[in-house]
Amino acid sequence: MITSLNELKELADKKKCASGNSRQELRVCMGSSCISLGSAELGKSLQDELQNRDLEDKYKIKNVGCNGLCANGTLVSHCRGDGSTLYEKITTSDTKDLVESIQNGGLLKDKMCDITQPFFTKQTKIVLENTGIIDPDDIEDYIAHGGYEALFKALDGMMPKDVIEEVKTSALRGRGGGGYPAGIKWESVSKVVSEQKYIICNGDEGDPGAFMDRAVMESDPHRVLEGMAIAGYACGANKGYIYVRAEYPLAVEKLGRAIKQATKLGILGENIAHSNFSFNIEIRLGAGAFVCGEATALIASVEGNRGNPRQKPPHLTDYGLWGKPTVLNNVETLANIAPIIKNGGAWYRDIGTENSSGTKVFALTGHIKNTGLVEVPMGTTLRELIYEIGGGIPDGKKFKAIQSGGPSGGCIPKELLDLHVDYESLKNAGSIMGSGGLIVIDDSSNMVEIARFFMDFCRSESCGKCTPCRVGTTELTLLLDKFIKKEATKSDFELLKEMCEFVKSTSLCGLGQTAPNPVLSTIKYFESEYLEGINDD
Ligand SMILES: Cc1cc2nc3c(=O)[nH]c(=O)nc-3n(C[C@H](O)[C@H](O)[C@H](O)COP(=O)(O)O)c2cc1C
Ligand code: SF4
Ligand code: FES
What we know:
The protein is of the alpha/beta class. Helices cover 43% and strands 14% of the residues. A hairpin with a 2-residue loop joins strand 3 and strand 4.
């Protein structure tokens, strides 16, 4: 049991000392993407090779989470006392060569990953600082990397209102899409007098192309638990739930193990660090409905009901889970909390832009060389993200647009490549930050088809509770089909625009209110592709 900041630091030192004296590490990426490439088999074959060569005393296989550069998986990092070497595209056929080269003190040159490329040098890692480094199954590894220090610092010498003040100073905005200031949300809940309050972590992540939250939950689950516990202390809540989709079995497994380990060490549970503060966390599984990521639908689902949204107000801060005051925060929002408490809100506020502080994690997908996970300061330009960090467009094609914000977002054309990515600039450009999926689109793509893809997604994910969304998304999908088949009329084009405005302004929840955005933004920037679908003869 750990009962004080000093004891936590002692454990961290002990673990660091043990690692320092012991074997060199071969860190094998066990993120979902690398697992699908065979990293579990690779880890086993490396272990066997070490055993065959009687090298187990000298080298240790360590399973780590996503390294970021998923396109070049499986990534293996060889860490020695004097530095480390990153290897890419490693398969079981490289096992013998890799082990032989490190045994001989050499390098497997044709498999080395260039860590001086912009993909690595242009990132600023706060949320992802531990991913690819620590073993997510080992709480002591998290603690050795400064984990749970922020929670114990808060419990040791900060009043709940000081914690809220620090989060307010950081100007951290919710990373789930809306960008609502986290500190203000916490303050609202802290001010409500209630015997029972809740903290909920939103790990639903239903947007096509998004996998940021999954990677954080899989690679650094304790960081999420720590953020939730700090939120509980600040707001006066003693119970937390993590809502995570069942299609993320690895994330569910890692979070479940992390909760058990933290509870065993007394970091979660009753009277943490001999204080009056108790906090327990449970996992709730979602069944993969996109709408269940919406705040009120999520609450209904956690309560065991069908995940239908309801009218707001009342807001969750007053009337949330089982009618009690509730803080709902996204995974990435909560993963930012520990560094903010440790380093101070002002430190965080200095990163990013005036209205959007800190960093943002993006999942880079689509027609881009370096598909994977990146974290950059707010204000980084789209050009830097696509051409420097992302490595540009593959197969000699040209960049056409980027889709941000998932089905609620929009498409931004090449003319806006120098846009600085933050909440306001993306909104002004007709898109949204969303949770962080960035889908790069090359010049072989038809933008009406892209818009149709997202509309059809919203059609199938609509809960059907209100008519404008249920009927409107179906009608819009059918209308878009006419443009794709080049059978639309001029009046269809007018109807398309009118119906988009109607669905936006009359739908009950965010799903319907934002479903037309991909259509409206493609009309704004790629109108000619709609006009090509009109055949009035
Ligand atoms: C249809 C829909 C789906 C959503 N899905 C998610 C999601 O998967 N994850 C998430 O954090 N927020 C999602 N949101 C936003 C949440 O309603 C809520 O604003 C967010 O979880 C609050 O956390 P934050 O303040 O930390 O961003 C969704 C909203 C809508 C309308
Ligand atoms: S807008 Fe769509 S998803 Fe939201 S309540 Fe209405 S039908 Fe359901
Ligand atoms: S899962 Fe291995 S690098 Fe992303």
